[in-house]
């Protein structure tokens, strides 16, 4: 995993604060691969938030908090909500990613 312990802690803390303590966070893509270089931070959040407005607010607030603490970096945040569609990106993130 190509995140520092500090970055990992900041990301997990912010996402759980905004999406709920019971949410699960996965790092996937090139940052999950120790031998890769560069790349954005690809994250999957599995949350129990179900309302679209709540999810949008949580996403915006979490990303703002993360950017304030670790600086401007490209972060792709994919969200899986209860009853939401199971997209291929969700499966790929869980199969190839690292649980944070």
UniProtKB/TrEMBL annotation:
Gene Ontology terms, MF aspect: nucleotidyltransferase activity
Stored InterPro entries: NT_sf, Polymerase_NTP_transf_dom
CDD domains in the record: NT_KNTase_like (cd05403)
Pfam families, alphabetized: NTP_transf_2
Gene3D superfamilies: Beta Polymerase, domain 2
UniProt keyword annotations, A-Z: Transferase
Protein name: Nucleotidyltransferase domain-containing protein
